[in-house]
Amino acid sequence: MSTDNQTRTVEVYADVLCPWSYIGKRRLETALAGTEGRERLEIVWRSYELSPEEGRTPGRTAAEAMGDWWGEQGSARVELIHTLGRAEGVDIDLTLARPVNTFDAHRLRHLAADHGLADQVMERLLRAYLCEGGNVSDPEVLERVGVEAGLDAGQVRALLDGDAYAKDVRADERRAKERGVNGVPMLIIDGRPPVSGIQPPADLTRLLQDALRPAPVAGD
User: Fold this and answer.
1) Do residues 26 and 122 lie in contact, with contact meaning Cβ atoms separated by under 8 Å?
2) Which residues form the DSBA-like thioredoxin domain (predicted)?
């Protein structure tokens, strides 16, 4: 068996609108903490818009929308998400969250990645929308989120005034389709087929550990 110190990439497809993406983020963090050799895992956030047709003006709440989708089961599903969120230490409140377009939020996350702050910005975006009811398509909200996560205010304003990283968001979305990603959160670990990002941390740890295992060399 060979020794292998190469970095493995864990690509995380997620959307700010998705409460499961926040729950999955916490579970991935727990899984990483239990993974031997986790310093060789690089986490890369990828863009995926659940509702690209959404406008920029908040309307009905996510809880109300789920009531429309699931009928009598809507309230139970909302409560399940709230309960699972609390179990992971996040106070998701779908009675506050109001779906909006997340394209600019994804652009902001791409900017953050170029400054080594992708995880911090994604965390702050998820909390702003899912816990605080923030409008994550509003430039003022995005600027505040970016600055709180460590970005320069001027850079964020320049981003929002132009179309920087728009092509990167679209490239992520095209690649998602090519790879069979049809929902979020979804993980692609070391280029392997996509797997659900909301698995229990112990299962995620096993997947991560397996990806870090050296490949056998012919003749071993």
Assistant:
1) no
2) 9-208
Give 196's strand partners. 186
User: Within 10 Å of residue 139's Cβ, how many Cβ atoms?
Assistant: 15
Phi, psi for 52 (deg, rounded to 5):
-65, -15
How far is Cα of residue 24 from the mean position of the Cα atoms in its chain?
Answer: 8
SS3 label, residue 93: coil
More confident residue, 214 or 181: 181
> Do the Cβ atoms of 154 and 164 come closer than 8 Å?
no
Whether 16 and 48 have beta carbons less than 8 Å apart is answered as no
Q: CA–CA separation, 120 vs 125, rounded Å? A: 9
Residue 42 bridge partners (DSSP):
9
Is-above-0.85 flag for pTM? yes
